Amino acid sequence: MQEPEEKKIALELLETEQAYVSRLHLLDQIFYTELMKEARNGKTVPEEVVKMIFSNISSIYQFHAKFFLPELQKRMEDWSCNPRIGDVIQKLAPFLKMYGEYVKNFDKAVELITVWSEKSLPFQELIADIQKRKVCANLTLQHHMLEPVQRIPRYELLLKDYVRKLPPESPDQDDAEKALEMIFMVAKHSNAAIAEMERLQNLWVVYQRLGLEDDIVDPSNELIKEGPIQKISTRNNSTSEKYLFLFNNMLLYCVPKVIQVGAEFQVHLRINVDGMKVRELNDTQFPHTFLVSGKQRTLELQAR
């Protein structure tokens, strides 16, 4: 007799969970533990660095190994008399919020591994030594670290499939749908956290290029567009190269610095978007020109 579709998916969930827990074991109990031991002996890198690389991997490992995997195993053993996993996944969903922290830290963690591998040969050698072991399956530490980042989307896909394949009269229908909704919310939460982080990092980079690091980066600022522009001087009918940064709240009119040490640009003028007007000009001598006028000043500019 053919196994019902939904049971196949539930089994796939269990099998991938077993593989995932062994991957978490490798990250937490082998990589993290051994790197931490060497750091404590003062042989490789500061302990703080190791902690920053592995973020909250220990909590994630404990949760899956001690709670979620055993519950799933129990379910699949009793499947014939109790064919359901929806309630177990509902219990899991709130804990997946702790992935937000790990995911947000991921890029920084990978960067730290690269930087410290160059700075500290013993650190690099220890990682290489662990990577040679059979348990690593010829994959790098970075590769294994990506696994938790991909786990929530995987739950989402499997559960979507499971709900689709459930027969209408299944006792798990309501629970599974509710579980899917919860997982969906967590996935959204973790994606939003990543997007917000990236946005702030980009903003910070722009501020550095402008030499405004001491200017507090206001998280509500958003860069909309940037690019070179010609400033028209009506006095002597000439143009000079300038650069514009348009944010949601201000236009920065900048001059590229000749000597590129530190900042790339010097901010000459800020025009608040509030009350700013833009008007196209029909100038035969200078095509593609427009006027930008704000409370602070009026500029005559030419685009490419």
From TrEMBL:
Keyword Ubl conjugation: no
Listed CDD domains: RhoGEF
Subcellular location: Cytoplasm, Cytoskeleton
One Pfam family named in its UniProt record: RhoGEF
Listed GO MF terms: guanyl-nucleotide exchange factor activity; zinc ion binding
Tagged with keyword Zinc: yes
Residue ranges of domain PH in the record: 222-304
Major site of localization recorded for this protein: cytoplasm
Keywords for the protein's UniProt record, in alphabetical order: Cytoplasm, Cytoskeleton, Metal-binding, Phosphoprotein, Repeat, Zinc, Zinc-finger
Domain DH: 5-193
InterPro entries: DBL_dom_sf, DH_dom, FYVE_RhoGEF_PH, PH-like_dom_sf, PH_domain, SOS1_NGEF_PH
GO cellular component: cytoplasm; cytoskeleton
Organism encoding this protein: Steatornis caripensis (Oilbird)
Top-rank taxon, per record: Eukaryota
PANTHER family assigned: FACIOGENITAL DYSPLASIA PROTEIN (PTHR12673), FYVE, RHOGEF AND PH DOMAIN-CONTAINING PROTEIN 2 (PTHR12673:SF82)
SMART domains: RhoGEF (SM00325)
GO BP field: cytoskeleton organization; filopodium assembly
Full protein name: FGD2 protein
